[in-house]
Amino acid sequence: MSVLRSVVLGCGSYLPARVVTNHELAKAVETSDEWIVQRTGIHERRIAATGELTSDMAVHAAKAALAAAKIEADSIDLIVLATSTPDQTFPASAVSVQAQLGIHHGAAFDLQAVCSGFVFGLATADSMLRSGSFKRALVIGSETFSRILDWNDRTTCVLFGDGAGAVVLDLQEQPGTREDRGVLTTHLRSDGRHKGKLYVDGGPSSTQTVGHLRMEGREVFRHAVSMITDVVVDAFKATGYSAADIDWFVPHQANRRIIDASAHKLGIAPEKIVATVDRHGNTSAASIPLALADAVADRRIKRGDLVLLEAMGGGFTWGAALVRW
């Protein structure tokens, strides 16, 4: 019996031109390259230029994804932009992306689930496509986290970077077998009891300011591995797949130690991990599509590969998706 699936037609990415190394940060705050690499695996990150907006980067990534998919922008009727750093409080940055792409139909909106945003966005777009309301979607993660960092806080300013990534989803009929292409399953979770462990200390309703990112790093690390593996196990149960079936593991790029510990606990071989955290830092909702685009560009991820995505972010939010490329 055939089923409708959201199939990935193409993906794209964008990184700001400015590279900030650990050595450069060590001149501004009390830290060192060795300290940062040992604890996070990060060597450098990209920082958006003055005047370069979240929507600008999203447009670049979207255009790259459209080019990879070999389709025109006006065939898109849904844009879901995952971001915690919108251009303005409102309207949604997604409508700026829509306008810059020359799309004048369909729907465009922002989605806020912090670092889990891309997985939440993928799940949302997949559901909306399969409902029959839309036919083709852009799912984008774009962040300018450099704008909400306290550059005097060495425990957080070394972790994050800016960038954007995007995928094009197309609603297609598939045979309804284990070999179906597209989004096979998604699993999302949230638990607001932990919101004080990773948050921004400002906002329109509370302080009328943007605020800065604050984090209890040890607490986040302590919860991350168990929460991540929990939703991945659910994805395996829903599809009948196991860690041995996975071709590529594309996790949220928060910290190399979290990535490696999660893969080890799940029984995923190290050579199946796609990691860009060393070059990009934590780009929040942009990290998974940036890593996807990286692995597709160098031909690691190929058509037919089974790809596992997972993320965890402030809230806490966390989620996983299994996608047949």
Structural overview:
The chain is an alpha/beta fold and 325 residues long. The protein folds into two domains: 3-174, Peroxisomal Thiolase, Chain A, domain 1 (3-Layer(aba) Sandwich); 182-324, Thiolase/Chalcone synthase (Peroxisomal Thiolase, Chain A, domain 1, 3-Layer(aba) Sandwich). The chain has ten helices and 13 strands. The longest helix has 23 residues, at 217-239. The radius of gyration is 18 Å and the shape is globular. The two termini are 21 Å apart.
Task: Indicate the topology.
Layout: E1 3-14, E2 18-21, H1 22-26, H2 33-40, E3 44-47, H3 54-69, E4 78-82, H4 93-100, E5 107-111, H5 117-130, E6 136-144, H6 154-157, E7 162-174, E8 182-190, E9 198-200, E10 213-215, H7 217-239, E11 248-251, H8 256-266, H9 277-280, H10 287-297, E12 306-313, E13 317-324
Parallel strand pairs: 4-5, 4-6, 11-12
Antiparallel strand pairs: 1-7, 2-3, 6-7, 8-13, 9-10, 12-13
Helix pairs in contact: 3-4, 7-8
- How many strands in all? 13
Low-pLDDT segments: none
CATH architecture annotation of the largest domain: 3-Layer(aba) Sandwich
Whole-number radius of gyration? 18 Å
Provide the succession of SSEs.
EEHHEHEHEHEHEEEEHEHHHEE
How many domains, as an integer? Answer: 2
Termini gap: 21 Å
Question: Helix content range of the residues, please?
Answer: 25-40%
